[in-house]
Amino acid sequence: MTGSITAILLAGARPIADPLATAAGVPVKPLVPVGGEPMINRPARALLDHPAIGQVIVLTQRPDVFAADPATAWLADHPHVRFETGGQGIASSLLALLERGDLPFPILLTTADHVLLDRTMLDQFVAEASGADIAVAMVERATLLARYPDSRRTWLKFRDGWWSGANIFWFGSNKARPVIALWQEVEQDRKKGWKILAAFGPFALLGALLRVMTLRGGMGRIGRKFGLTARLVAMDSPEACIDADKPADVTLIEAILRG
């Protein structure tokens, strides 16, 4: 799979001002300094340095601000990076790129605030997601709390544990389009797990509420519903679910980078 994966790095802005960007005095959150440089630089380098990734697409509403900032101008000049202007929704922007026909599968999608993304995480995710039509990286709560007991995340409870998203997604083939379309419908409620589950039917929602469904079983149900292979990648690295979303996250990330 050398150089065959298209990586999409989400570097957009929400409709309302981001508190981290406001506090740092920068126009968009991905330019917020973390560990002495704009947060986007670290995941961008991790993607570009991975041998399985052929190109990195930076999806943002403001490509101009990255070219204008001396610390991120290298992205605009890099031969394997291209900027695409996205809309207000991740899924709608992704569908628009797919409609153009110049976005080859497989696609690995991650976020500019995934500052701790590294080769080890990417190795595991690519190895376990390969062959699936869709895959989602998650971290089980015990994995995180064993190393970072004070870290606070958003958790979804299933029979096989409490899970938090790791902001790494896989779209392996054109079969993923219906799932992306569903994502478009529910992405405004991405922090409200029950609404996402409800989109897959009442039995999925009831199973989660009664704690009788495993997350892996839920992924299997998604696959059967859409006629595709859906896979959970349970990440070994607890850092995989620590993104730079709040000041406390930035403090923790910087401590990890120093260590």
From TrEMBL:
SUPFAM superfamilies, alphabetically?
A: Nucleotide-diphospho-sugar transferases
Q: Does the keyword Mitochondrion apply?
A: no
Q: What keywords are annotated for this sequence in UniProt?
A: Magnesium, Membrane, Transmembrane, Transmembrane helix
Write down the Gene3D superfamilies for this protein, in alphabetical order. Spore Coat Polysaccharide Biosynthesis Protein SpsA, Chain A
InterPro entries referenced in this protein's UniProt entry, alphabetically? MobA-like_NTP_Trfase (IPR025877), Nucleotide-diphossugar_trans (IPR029044)
**Keyword Lyase included in the entry's annotation:** no
Q: List all membrane-crossing ranges.
A: 194-215
UniProt-listed Pfam families? NTP_transf_3 (PF12804)
Q: Where's the MobA-like NTP transferase domain? A: 28-141
For this protein, what is any one GO molecular function term? nucleotidyltransferase activity
Give the protein's recorded name. Answer: 4-diphosphocytidyl-2C-methyl-D-erythritol synthase
Tell me what organism the protein belongs to. Sphingobium cupriresistens LL01
What are the top taxonomic ranks of the organism?
A: Bacteria, Pseudomonadati, Pseudomonadota, Alphaproteobacteria, Sphingomonadales
